[in-house]
Amino acid sequence: MDYSLQLLMTLPELVLAVGSIVLMLVAAWGGHQSTKLVSWAAIAVLIGAGIALAGPASSGGDAFDGLYRADMFAAFSKVLIYVAAAVSILIAPRFFQRTSGDDLRPEYPVLILLSTAGMGMMVSAGDMLTLYVGLELLSLSSYVLASFMRRDARSAEAGLKYFVLGALASGILLYGISLVYGFSGTTLFDGIASAYTGGERSMGLLFGLVFVFAGLAFKMSAVPFHMWTPDVYEGAPTPVTAFFASAPKVAAVALAVRVAIEAMGPALHDWRQIVIFASLASIILGAVAAIGQTNVKRLLAYSSINNVGFALIGLAAGTAEGVAGVLTYLAIYVVMTIGSFLVVLQMRGPDGEPIEDIASLAGMSRTRPGLAAALAIFMFSLAGIPPLLGFFAKLAVFMAAVQAGLIVFAVVGAAASAIGAYYYLRIVKTMYFDEPAPAFHGKPGMVEGGLIALTAAVISPLGWPLLLPLGAWTMLAAKALF
């Protein structure tokens, strides 16, 4: 294949990599005064990377002898990642100004761009080494982002916990990759799939499969590798938490789908057992553990664990319909999650300090009716209550599981979703029926207010016209893997 065409296939990552390096130099020479310029330039870079997806980057096939894959599946995942990254940059300046009394530093958007480049490599990986390089670029940037507020003890603790546990998970993943390589003789997904095709698979390949999925489960924050999520989400700055709950989640789930279908597709019955266990455990534990939470960011952390469990239902099906269901779920989940964290950003005390207690939401329907209505929409949608789009997200993965013959699994997952509905509805009850707590101070900025209104409208029945094109796009993206 022509080398220039291969470069065009990787153009989104090239745009992100070059853009982040250039903006890093601008930040180094410009100092704090360059923050606004770097932030808007970073958003422009993300838009440029999105535009680059329109060419061979979405349909070019394999590049660099199979190390990199440019297809519709990767393109769809990258669009979600770029949108979440851009929102995380947009909402950061006002948060840092009101929280620490100090302007946002220009390193923040640069770190977001670097982690986004890593996520792009992850979802386009056609080789275990490409996968690992992209994953580590994301991880190293994320450790710094979690501890970005250096003078805040909780932020520093979040970064340290994330680093220690992330290093352990990377070691587990790398050990699994080494086992797969040792017993298959290749790190390319196509070659690994050929090794799993044989009638009698070696024990080494099965152990490699287990360790690879364990490492990926950590990045998805799926049970039993979820333990870092509540502490990191609570301690990290809220814009960073919104980023962690959206973009890296999409990248991790998309990566797991690609590895499962392309590299280990012939071992479907082996990894399906792992996925079903992780799915049900994440749904149940995420729901039960969230019930006793008093901190809204910790509650949303357990909500993200719960939602990963639902996304994995589609993966367990192992079909194109299942993968399309996963992508549909991720798209709607990103909008619901970003909207929820945008509301959390408005929870401020008289001195501008963040308020994170769920009890402080009491009576918000009377003190901030618009904000309460938006949060109620997000909570009802996360609970999967029709006619909001969260219902259709759950319906997509349940239908895929039923079509694949996993009827009992789908029924248990649907029943377990009722547990999660409790803590979502508890927030709505607190806002609308409890005696009012002191009103939050300050009003949403123009950007934040516009994003809250937009995300709430998309999730509401006003977003129904988007379901048909979304379904067509996700099916097109899913078929790229089969």
UniProtKB/TrEMBL annotation:
<comment type="subunit">
    <text>NDH-1 is composed of 14 different subunits. Subunits NuoA, H, J, K, L, M, N constitute the membrane sector of the complex.</text>
</comment>
<dbReference type="Pfam" id="PF00361">
    <property type="entry name" value="Proton_antipo_M"/>
</dbReference>
<dbReference type="InterPro" id="IPR010096">
    <property type="entry name" value="NADH-Q_OxRdtase_suN/2"/>
</dbReference>
<feature type="transmembrane region" description="Helical">
    <location>
        <begin position="326"/>
        <end position="345"/>
    </location>
</feature>
<keyword id="KW-0874">Quinone</keyword>
<feature type="transmembrane region" description="Helical">
    <location>
        <begin position="395"/>
        <end position="425"/>
    </location>
</feature>
<dbReference type="GO" id="GO:0050136">
    <property type="term" value="F:NADH dehydrogenase (quinone) (non-electrogenic) activity"/>
</dbReference>
<dbReference type="GO" id="GO:0048038">
    <property type="term" value="F:quinone binding"/>
</dbReference>
<keyword id="KW-1003">Cell membrane</keyword>
<feature type="transmembrane region" description="Helical">
    <location>
        <begin position="75"/>
        <end position="96"/>
    </location>
</feature>
<dbReference type="GO" id="GO:0042773">
    <property type="term" value="P:ATP synthesis coupled electron transport"/>
</dbReference>
<protein>
    <recommendedName>
        <fullName>NADH-quinone oxidoreductase subunit N</fullName>
        <ecNumber>7.1.1.-</ecNumber>
    </recommendedName>
</protein>
<comment type="function">
    <text>NDH-1 shuttles electrons from NADH, via FMN and iron-sulfur (Fe-S) centers, to quinones in the respiratory chain. The immediate electron acceptor for the enzyme in this species is believed to be ubiquinone. Couples the redox reaction to proton translocation (for every two electrons transferred, four hydrogen ions are translocated across the cytoplasmic membrane), and thus conserves the redox energy in a proton gradient.</text>
</comment>
<dbReference type="GO" id="GO:0005886">
    <property type="term" value="C:plasma membrane"/>
</dbReference>
<feature type="transmembrane region" description="Helical">
    <location>
        <begin position="203"/>
        <end position="228"/>
    </location>
</feature>
<keyword id="KW-1278">Translocase</keyword>
<feature type="transmembrane region" description="Helical">
    <location>
        <begin position="299"/>
        <end position="320"/>
    </location>
</feature>
<keyword id="KW-0813">Transport</keyword>
<feature type="transmembrane region" description="Helical">
    <location>
        <begin position="446"/>
        <end position="467"/>
    </location>
</feature>
<dbReference type="InterPro" id="IPR001750">
    <property type="entry name" value="ND/Mrp_TM"/>
</dbReference>
<feature type="transmembrane region" description="Helical">
    <location>
        <begin position="37"/>
        <end position="55"/>
    </location>
</feature>
<keyword id="KW-1133">Transmembrane helix</keyword>
<keyword id="KW-0472">Membrane</keyword>
<feature type="transmembrane region" description="Helical">
    <location>
        <begin position="162"/>
        <end position="183"/>
    </location>
</feature>
<comment type="similarity">
    <text>Belongs to the complex I subunit 2 family.</text>
</comment>
<keyword id="KW-0520">NAD</keyword>
<dbReference type="GO" id="GO:0012505">
    <property type="term" value="C:endomembrane system"/>
</dbReference>
<feature type="transmembrane region" description="Helical">
    <location>
        <begin position="240"/>
        <end position="261"/>
    </location>
</feature>
<feature type="transmembrane region" description="Helical">
    <location>
        <begin position="131"/>
        <end position="150"/>
    </location>
</feature>
<keyword id="KW-0812">Transmembrane</keyword>
<feature type="transmembrane region" description="Helical">
    <location>
        <begin position="273"/>
        <end position="292"/>
    </location>
</feature>
<feature type="domain" description="NADH:quinone oxidoreductase/Mrp antiporter transmembrane">
    <location>
        <begin position="125"/>
        <end position="419"/>
    </location>
</feature>
<dbReference type="GO" id="GO:0008137">
    <property type="term" value="F:NADH dehydrogenase (ubiquinone) activity"/>
</dbReference>
<feature type="transmembrane region" description="Helical">
    <location>
        <begin position="108"/>
        <end position="125"/>
    </location>
</feature>
<keyword id="KW-0830">Ubiquinone</keyword>
<feature type="transmembrane region" description="Helical">
    <location>
        <begin position="6"/>
        <end position="30"/>
    </location>
</feature>
<feature type="transmembrane region" description="Helical">
    <location>
        <begin position="370"/>
        <end position="389"/>
    </location>
</feature>
